């Protein structure tokens, strides 16, 4: 167990949370076996068979271990037990026939008698063709055999609750049969434990030929024994069967406190079915609540309120039933006289955790202690409630504190019953490697490939068994597994049958209950407690005699004292991401500490009211759940109610954007924007008309919450309980004032529970959308949005040959990142795939163990052109040569970096050259370049499309004969990349994007010092890789157009592709800004770049000996256009997107639009201030300075005809470095403004293509086509547009 108990390296700031992995709606068990296996892999350990017997099997009778007892049984089995593998005797026979001997063996063993243990009622049965009936939808599986309930008659149906020990058999032992057998066992157990409420754990058996495997499944963890040869080791087989056939029900995993009852008549005449979720269940379960004083009480289930069909077995597994008290009547049960319907909660807790009743009692004790203080009104936690307008609020609060009235705000627990802890993980158990539920083999085509989940286990190359091709589990050196804490089962009994707040009749009813919830949270605040799981399902309401609704706050299992000092646990917990606080969901405080601001440099930032910084959690300031996080959850519930729970399509569409979740609980862009940005505009557009007044109130609440979190972080005051008083007062006042007049909105009805409203249950990981068990309470599903880059149906195997040793490597495509359907055949035809290494397995292909997904780029360059890898190697060689110069600091290209103002920049550049570039006698890979390529976040990404252009200025003469280009031969090239990156305009925030652009300027300076130009700087080529600390590091990609500035090669006539959105102005217009020595004055410059309206481009460049060439500044200018693109087109703000549409347009001949020209020649600060979202307005002036620097530099260089003078580019490099360095010193106010995700509504636009060259995303390989949004078309790559 030392491997399992190894502490994790990362900091645990709070009890980690994860989403439930639940089954797809109405999904058949046989269809989701692989998904179940992937979900269960992290919880399965392995051990030796003898260890399994000692720790997990029921104990043997005391005398059975004597040799004479075993020999006596073996003598009785003479002629019954087989002495050869089933595959040898029954190679083509059915499993039932091959393993029929087991039935005879069990019959002989069952006839034995032991003094210390009695034979149980369970029997061994072969049931390969029996249909299994279940109260849970999807139970279409079958099993080969079982030890379970005997048949009551010949026509009795086999129910899932009859199966005590399921068994799966296979005559042959091969990799496919082992995989299939394991998945059948795991999926069967998963379904049975979802169906049968009695189960604490389950045992199972699987056999392949002569190898038997034992299984143990529990809510804490699961264990698989290594297989053993039962033909040779018959003694061990006999002991296993004796253990099972002489075990008690409790030893076989049945909870003695729960029993099945099949009533002839309904038990309860008073209880009514719950129409909200539950459906009448066929089987009744009798729960026992032991009471040593008054005797046990029994409660029968009448309806199911909540029960989720989970994929994995381990976990909390919570069920909620409507019950009524019953008493014994003969052999049956009857309703106890005078009994009233109640609610029972069945949940699995950590063995060392307090029960919810213990937590509730301690909370009430602390609230009572606070109320008994004579000076409680002057408590620091209530210092913000001293204003006269708070008098009514305090008076009502005082009434709640008197005579224990506060208890009425909570769902009181009437009784509880706690079971015994589950078994601990044995010391010899270890993580399975390879994973127990093996991945599906890869075929050459037609079948998809399953890649096992790598969240909590590692893979190594297993050794092969030469006899049958099977793999055995290898030892993992240092697995990073969590500690599997033992669980115990807890029954909680509640007297009140309540309704969730989002299922109340009207919006007014719901907001009344939310206002009472704020009072309950104030009670917990005064007692020093945090709830930590405020959600729509836990804020319940009970209707009183007058028809009003009263709060019943439930689910205190996560509640704890704010300063209890207990360390966070390592087992993940489930939660409701829809209603989690922003800081909890993003795992970051909005602001951490104060920073010195250079007023002279960043004076535009000092008046920003909403300055903020998002910093990763640290050991010094770990992220903890605080009092405001509970209040913020109330805000999210209110927003959920007015959007998702109203029968109004625009409202629900907005809810679909905000209330989404992923396996890693990462919030959507819309969710982040709904907390950090003003929401009045969005709500005003989507809310039903009577609810429009609520938009202003919710915006005020949001603003209060955001400002409180910001100023608390500024002072590092998260542990100061007094700092939460003001936000409590503001929230109370907001809701009190709102509820003073509910006319117009209070009686707006909420959608009924069976409507098409989204379910608040979170989406689960991997293909597992949340769904209630259909037979126990089905709910409509909120279907998750499909990701771009869907799985491709056809797989391709790519071969790589190592020219050094002749080794061959094979890779199969997994999904398509980029593949465009071109009209013309000739061209570069670039494809990018996500793929993984495979190896030959018989006639098919299997994933190679220990491999990770990679990226493959397939491109057709000219035959005589260097490959991208050759270009990259030469570039690194030239950079290394520059690094080796002893006088590189005095190099002409860096002479403008001698200014003291940029001393820090040049020192950082020096450190980069010394620590990152210099290698051991050979060029090393600079970290800013993508040496092992890219893949985008998710299955695919899209960038603004490329068009074709020529590198020389076209002739204006009339051409009599067609002047065709030379058609150069092509060669096909495969590039393999290992790094998984994200394009700069798809990063989470503007601050992340600008940080990467700052690094991009450093990378271009490296190329500048080495004498190289990139020639294709675009958002899709400036990639980023997230490091261990959560920061983003630049990865430069796509060097296929890069070359030395003075390489002497003549320009080619074949058209090249490029990205017009980010091309430098001179390249796009095919003209230098200024040519020749004209008189230059400040007024001339002002008139040119400030008052510019319709510029007249100087065409004299055609007469020069040197045609227009790409230079160092053109690369830098592309960075400027990317920055402008990010803050306009990539922000969810309609004015910004409209402005981007004017600038970033192109057509077939690549002519420059007037707005694109004005954006480079004229002052852009005023235009940007009008269109940018408010937090980004400080960037308008910063980008105007960058634009001005670029224009003046190009103007002066053209004035001196100095385009070939490399030293003339030093100044603009220095200025760009300084601008970005000062800009990134303080990102408060704009740094955490979120960018739209690739699948959000503000998608990257695509230029209109030429008539004959429309590029379309290839849907057959997984790239999703996107609709036109806000005037922007879906991203598409254009081809064969020529300037001639």
From TrEMBL:
Give me the stretches of Low complexity compositional bias.
1242-1261
Under Pfam families, the record lists: Pkinase_fungal (PF17667)
**Region called Disordered, residue ranges:** 1-29, 1242-1284
Entry's InterPro entries?
Kinase-like_dom_sf, Pkinase_fungal
Pinpoint the Fungal-type protein kinase domain residues.
151-642, 825-1127
> Per the record, where are the segments of Basic and acidic residues compositional bias?
11-29, 1275-1284
Q: What is this protein called?
A: Fungal-type protein kinase domain-containing protein
- Give the organism, scientific name: Candolleomyces aberdarensis
Q: What is the lineage of its organism?
A: Eukaryota, Fungi, Dikarya, Basidiomycota, Agaricomycotina
